[in-house]
Amino acid sequence: MAPLAQAETKKPPQPPLRSYQHLWTDAEGISHIARCPVSNFFLKSMSPPAGPQWQNPMAPQVATVMMTVQPAHWNGAWHPDPKPQWIIPLQGSWYVRAMDGTRVVMGPGDILFGEDQDVRPMPYGIYKGKKGHDAGNIGDGPVTLLVIQSANSPVINRPCRYY
User: 3-class DSSP state for residue 21?
Assistant: First the structure.
């Protein structure tokens, strides 16, 4: 096949499909966790002459970036997140459990958007009186997290609002 014919049949690269977990609050004040797609990527150099990379930027906002290290056997008990925040494990594994009983385990590179600030105590069931989410480390070592806390107000009843 001639080089020109090869170039004509070469398909353009397909954007990646990634996901994040969204800890969100419904209109009744109950927290849930939804797995949400991220697919609106475009290919662009962040700083020419560096090669292009897939990007999906969010609207600009004021945020605080911090790294936290949860000691071995850390137990977060039941609590709401202090602010809407992105949490990305860098080392170790941990879990998050919503008021509806949904539980996810996250390790390095997984992403959670915690937005359960407007929860109310669970009115019934095994989590009666609990609010927010339960979290804790898995295994015998510490867990290192990158946390990006947004100054924006939480939004209720909109699972997967970032995509």
Answer: strand
Tokens at residue 24, please?
Answer: 């969100």
pLDDT, tens digit only, all 163 positions of the chain: 555 555 567 887 899 999 999 999 999 999 999 999 998 999 999 999 999 999 999 889 999 999 999 999 999 999 999 999 999 999 999 999 999 999 999 999 999 999 999 999 999 999 999 999 999 999 999 999 999 999 999 999 999 998 7
Q: Which two tokens stand for residue 145?
A: 């997290």
- CA 89, CA 68: separation in Å to the nearest integer? 10
Other C-beta atoms closer than 10 Å to the C-beta of 44 total: 11
d(CA 109, CA 18): 11
